[in-house]
Amino acid sequence: MEQRLDFITLSTPDLDAVRAFYRDGLGWAPLLDVPGEIVFFQVGHGLVAGFFEAEKFTADMEGTGAPAGPSGLTLSHNTGSPAEVDAVVERAVQAGARLVKEPQRAAFGGYHGHFADPCGLVWEVCHNPGWSVAADGTVRLEPVE
């Protein structure tokens, strides 16, 4: 198996709330939207996030799927500056997110804040000067002083 991730699919108990939050609140464009079942958003180069209605998710796993709602997981969105962190977190909260952690200087030396989407998925919005992506897609992650 190649060291690669193409889709992240998350079970959600309220597909309509998630769709409205990401599409209407944050301005994301759906890649594919199947009402009552799943909505996909392209979130990076060759990377798709899918939000799957919880009952249909469980049925797709033949009844063995995890319960709806993520646990012990954050998704991260890196920005170019602390001011962008503030703006993204503010927009998310205005769109209906719950503020988890006010934007602030991070222990690793960058700047970050956290919010939870309407179904509890926690996002970290971060300015990390030690993180960059080369033209070929290679990630560089270095300590921040």
Account of the 3D structure:
With 145 residues, the protein is of the alpha+beta class. It is 21% helix and 39% strand. The protein has three helices and ten strands; from the N terminus they run βαβββαβαβββββ. It has helices spanning 15-25, 54-60, 82-94; strands at 7-12, 30-34, 38-44, 47-53, 74-78, 98-105, 111-116, 122-127, 131-133, 139-141. The chain has a four-stranded mixed sheet. It has a four-stranded mixed sheet with strand order 5-8-7-6, with helices on one face. The protein has a two-stranded antiparallel ribbon with strand order 9-10. A hairpin with a 2-residue loop joins β3 (38-44) and β4 (47-53). The model has no long low-confidence stretch (mean pLDDT 91).
| Rg over C-alpha atoms, rounded to the nearest angstrom | 16 Å
Overall structural class, as computed from helix and strand content, comes to alpha+beta
Shape: globular
Poorly predicted regions: none
Main beta sheet strand tally, sense and closure: 4 strands, mixed
CA-CA gap between termini: 36 Å
% residues in beta strands: 35-45%
The residue-averaged pLDDT reads 91
Helicity level: 10-25%
Describe the SSE topology.
Elements: E1 7-12, H1 15-25, E2 30-34, E3 38-44, E4 47-53, H2 54-60, E5 74-78, H3 82-94, E6 98-105, E7 111-116, E8 122-127, E9 131-133, E10 139-141
Parallel strand pairs: 1-4, 5-8
Antiparallel strand pairs: 2-3, 3-4, 6-7, 7-8, 9-10
